[in-house]
Specification:
The chain is α/β, with parallel strands linked by helices. The protein contains 10 helices and 12 strands. It has a single domain (4-302), classed as TIM Barrel (Alpha-Beta Barrel).
Length: 304
């Protein structure tokens, strides 16, 4: 599979320009002085152009043998082209899509999409606290308005990124509607948590194209964070999508996360804060990732 590599300083420029940085220590909600400021920045990976016709089913190699028949998941949404720039020009030159971080550090970015119901979110947060890890939560405005206390608890320890205001299908919206939805969500995040999400975002259901990414970049979100999809050493296509939004067993979800972690440095995974399967296996999955010698970090930390 053909892949592109980001030019040095591109991601750092986007994060610094939008006030982002690595969330560190006991208060990752505070924006720390990023090592990327005037320092070395390692390249990250962006997804290539894939024709829409290529989106069929989730790769069966990424699923345990007891998985149900595959359907088309968000992971199969084709990746649009991504434009790379240099320095502070990144916002003007176009969007960046990241699906994997640098390969020179033993780190994995664990991310959650926060929508639907609150369900097991409180226990998920407690498991993350006990494991002493900070991760990135991609927030939806509707969810934050429905569960403001939980949203504030997330913001107190974890990194926030944007996942839309009302989870619409962005490709079916006009540019103005996309921007309006992103800005409405950001107002909610600021009002409820006091935290901004720029420049990191993830399209609802992963549905995006070049036009959608360009509109989001103009609104201040130039870095679209997807999840890793690559072949492992056995030639199997593996996805960082845990599949916890599907009718999988908890063990299948744990197996998918382990297959993703097996890919090694720079992997980005995605789970969901309303998933009961994730709640049941999160503790053992975090332990298994750490046992591989991988440090669990936020997206900003991974891309620093």
């Amino acid at each position: 599979m053909r892949r592109w590599t980001l030019a040095p300083l591109v991601l750092a420029a986007a994060l610094v320009a939008c006030g982002g940085g690595a969330a560190t220590g006991d208060r990752p909600s505070e924006i720390a002085a990023s090592p990327a400021r005037g320092a070395e920045v390692t390249a990250a990976t962006v997804a290539p152009v894939v024709p829409v016709a290529a989106a069929t089913t989730i790769p069966t190699a990424a699923l345990p043998s007891e998985a149900p028949l595959p359907v088309v998941p968000p992971s199969a949404v084709p990746s649009p082209s991504a434009t790379t720039g240099t320095g502070g020009e990144v916002g003007a030159r176009g969007p960046i899509e990241v699906s994997r971080g640098p390969g020179d550090r033993r780190e994995l970015a664990f991310t959650f999409d926060c929508g639907g119901h609150a369900g097991p979110t409180r226990e998920i947060l407690e498991i993350l606290r006990e494991a002493d890890v900070s991760v990135t939560f991609f927030m939806i405005g509707d969810w934050v308005r429905a569960y403001p206390d939980l949203a504030r608890d997330i913001a107190a320890r974890h990194e926030l990124a944007h996942h839309s205001d009302r989870h619409p299908d962005y490709p079916s919206l006009t540019d103005a509607q996309i921007i309006a939805d992103l800005e409405a969500g950001e107002r909610t995040f600021l009002e409820v948590t006091g935290r901004a999400t720029r420049p990191l975002w993830r399209a609802p259901s992963g549905a995006r194209d070049d036009r959608v990414l360009a509109a989001a970049a103009r609104a201040g979100w130039p870095v679209h964070v997807f999840w890793t999809q690559e072949r492992n050493a056995r030639g199997e296509l593996v996805t960082g999508d845990s599949g916890d939004w599907r009718p999988f067993t908890p063990q299948q979800v744990a197996n998918n996360l382990d297959l993703a972690a097996e890919l090694g440095n720079g992997v980005i995974t995605v789970s969901h804060c309303d998933s009961e399967q994730t709640r049941l296996v999160l503790r053992e999955s975090l332990e298994a990732i750490k046992a591989r010698g991988l440090r669990i970090v936020t997206v900003s930390e991974l891309l620093r």
